[in-house]
Design goal:
The chain is of the alpha/beta class. It is 39% helix and 17% strand. The chain folds into 2 domains: 2-7 and 252-342, Alpha-Beta Complex (Aspartate Aminotransferase, domain 1); 13-250, 3-Layer(aba) Sandwich (Aspartate Aminotransferase, domain 2). Strand 5 (132-139), helix 7 (150-162) and strand 6 (166-171) form a beta-alpha-beta unit.
């Protein structure tokens, strides 16, 4: 089987496995008091060119839900895109960790919400009978595989600030978004108004490690307690932090993301040349959404390719995801199979 189901289907990068073997030697202080965790905190501050509070966690769901719990009270509203991971794929975790805050999904083309839609939603929620506006969450790269430009984030941040709301970014594929444009990590986050970032590594070569990066010092005051109470203070934290340290070392995270994006670009370019195939969204990171004839889908499955059906017209929309270790030969074989089915 050749899998284009998800970047979660890939294994871990060799550099990260090596780092885990090395950090396993000897003893270290538990619960994040080890030297590796301290180095990761300093390194992420360098990456983002600012002081930031950094908290490693094991999953993206924990990073998102705990971050949002800092911004939204139980009676709060968290605005997000209708396809956002926090709304569709996290089993109510943001609501649970916030004590009951409500996710308010907003529509928007290609996985993005815009400032006008956000402003209208907030303006319509001012009475005592409704959940009260508390936070905004954006996904970078989006669930449609597109990327918010700094100006788009800044426009959303301006609306959020005008209403006293915090801005959270789900950066499960932050590296893929970053290498898609000529911007710095700072420009894509705090310089554009982001208050809290869920910094992803698992989808891009880590075994299982993420980090919450808080750009507003006041948000950090209770995070350590929320992480502990929520069961996400890992006792042997060095094994999370070692992954993050290796991920950031020598720009491994950027090299991995560039390869994944390049493979998606190669796949998208080939698909556009095949009769009967159309792309549903611009391909800007490492996800492709395409409509295909039923016969083509059946032929690809028969040839051993795995991918997700994504609904759409008559169920003919599929999602294809490339990864840091996607083999160009597998991309070409997929295209060859699709071409045979189109003939």
């Amino acid at each position: 089987m050749v899998s284009f189901t998800s970047d979660n289907a890939s294994g871990a990068a060799p550099e990260i496995l090596q780092a885990l073997a090395e950090v396993n030697a000897g003893a270290a202080m538990p619960y994040g008091q080890d030297a590796v965790t301290k180095r990761v905190e300093a390194r992420l501050a360098e990456v983002f060119e600012t002081k930031a509070a950094v908290f490693p966690v094991a999953t993206g769901t924990a990073a998102n839900a705990l971050s949002l719990s800092l911004m939204a009270p139980p009676y709060g509203a968290i605005y997000c895109h209708e396809a956002a991971h926090i709304h569709v794929d996290e089993c109510g975790a943001p609501e649970f960790y916030s004590g009951g805050a409500k996710l308010v999904p907003l529509s928007g083309d290609h996985g993005k919400i815009d400032a006008r839609t956000l402003g209208a939603a907030i303006d319509g929620a001012g009475n005592v009978h409704a959940v009260q506006p508390a936070a905004v969450s954006v996904t970078q790269a989006t669930e449609a595989g597109t990327v918010y430009a700094p100006a788009e984030i800044a426009a959303l941040a301006e609306v959020a600030r005008a209403h006293g709301l915090g801005l959270h970014m789900d950066g499960a594929r932050f590296a893929n978004a970053l290498v898609a444009g000529n911007h710095s990590p700072a420009e894509l986050t705090w310089k554009s108004g982001v208050d809290a970032l869920s910094f992803g590594a698992t989808k891009n070569g880590a075994l299982g490690a993420e980090a919450v990066v808080l750009f507003k010092p006041e948000l950090a005051a209770t995070f350590a307690y929320r992480r502990k109470r929520g069961g996400h203070l890992i006792s042997k934290m060095r094994f999370l932090s070692a992954q993050l340290e290796a991920y950031l070392h020598d720009d491994l995270w950027l090299r991995n993301a560039r390869h994944a994006n390049a493979m998606a670009g190669r796949l998208a370019a080939g698909l556009q040349g095949i009769a009967g195939v159309s792309l549903c969204h611009p391909v800007e990171a490492n996800e492709i959404f395409a409509r295909m004839p039923d016969a083509m889908i059946a032929g690809l499955l028969a040839d051993g390719f795995a991918f997700y059906h994504w609904g759409g017209a008559a169920g003919r929309e599929v999602r294809l995801v490339t990864s840091f270790d996607t083999d160009p030969k597998d991309v070409d074989a997929f295209l060859a199979s699709a071409s045979r089915s189109a003939a």
